[in-house]
Amino acid sequence: MTGTTTTDPQRQPLVFTADNPDHRYLDFPAGTVVAVHHGDYRRQEVWVASGPNAGNWSPVGGEFDCPPTGQDGVPEHPVFADILARGPVTLLVAAQQTAYEAGWVKGRSQLLGQIEELRDTGDCNIPPMPTGEHR
């Protein structure tokens, strides 16, 4: 299975879902990295296909708060179908540095837009942004 990345807005990421029976039994090589709920910083989980435990997946720790295997409904040795059951799964692939930079900038811009929208609608008490150049 191969994938490509692009900064072209017309290209869509490769996403797998539990409601597609063809996706449940896909076989990925060791080291494959996927994200559940990709882009949703509150729920995003990152998983990697295991090398020593072939056919199983391991959660990646760090800022992506994946539950440990054997807890929170995750089996001790989860397979891809178990990962799909957690939500839509996006295949993550390597890209040029410019693609990562463009994604980071776009994500930060979207987050700023969401904060400004909340402030403008009065849904929360956010002080006005200071004037001047922001990065």
Please specify the SSE layout and strand pairing.
Layout: E1 15-16, E2 33-36, E3 45-49, E4 57-59, H1 80-84, E5 89-92, H2 97-121
Antiparallel strand pairs: 1-5, 2-3, 2-5, 3-4
Give me the number of helical elements: 2
Mean pLDDT across every amino acid position: 76
Question: What is the number of strand segments?
Answer: 5
Strand percentage lies at 5-15%
Q: What structural class do the secondary elements suggest?
A: alpha+beta
Q: Nearest-angstrom radius of gyration?
A: 18 Å
Principal-axis shape equals elongated
Task: Please give a structural write-up.
The chain contains two helices and five strands; from the N terminus they run ββββαβα. It folds into two domains: 78 residues, no CATH class; 29 residues. The chain is elongated. The N terminus is likely disordered. With 135 residues, the chain is α+β, with helices and mostly antiparallel strands. A hairpin with a 7-residue loop joins strand 3 and strand 4. It has a five-stranded antiparallel sheet.
